[in-house]
């Protein structure tokens, strides 16, 4: 199999000339140049999933909004990351994420340390623009160290990917679809009974919300240690 030769490509993001390797994504190049594009499912070092759609951007010549985390760069393309159309779409997407599950920040362990909450603040979203669904899931507190609350899950699949790609256990996956979808351990068994889980805690620390957290913490106390995962991924790549 012949590998594609990596070349440098030049294009514009928000009117700024930028360069990146031909196999890079729009989000990667934007990050390299200090241009902020909001994300929820993206985590540096993990395979992009394009699940949350918060990173939607405009590309001149296309009527469609595209996810920056999965879109490859092209020579001469012109990208807009923060138009009124984009802001409107992001606000609606965020509203639907909030409305699908239960996100009561005041009683959440991740209050003040939540990426979903941060996005709402940045976008000025003070209430959901769509009706709440009020889907209720059973909380799994069977593990001796951690708790999984599906009611706060945004199905970003960070936990699934870090378990598979970094820990190598693949103890997690998604069951069902739509509003019934949830993260499961092995064949939908209680976390404590999972034979694949290594109890490493990586899934907990990549979770952007209060869906996965350590036992013994109360509201506002759960601070995720994402740097542990990013440093591990970086070290492995350098070997």
Keyword list:
globular, five-stranded mixed beta sheet, 239 residues, alpha+beta, Alpha-Beta Plaits, Ubiquitin-like (UB roll)
Q: Can you characterise this structure?
A:
It is a single chain. By secondary structure, the protein is of the alpha+beta class. The chain has two domains: 8-82, Roll (Ubiquitin-like (UB roll)); 88-238, Alpha-Beta Plaits (2-Layer Sandwich). 26% of the residues lie in helices and 15% in strands.
Number of helices: 6
CATH fold annotation of the largest domain: Alpha-Beta Plaits
Strand order of the largest sheet: 2-1-5-3-4
Radius of gyration: 19 Å
Major sheet: size, sense and barrel closure? 5 strands, mixed
Terminal Cα span: 24 Å
Q: How many beta-strand segments?
A: 9
Structural class: alpha+beta
User: What portion of residues belong to β-strands?
Assistant: 15-25%
- CATH architecture title of the largest domain: 2-Layer Sandwich
Total separate domains: 2
Shape: globular
Average pLDDT across residues?
Answer: 95
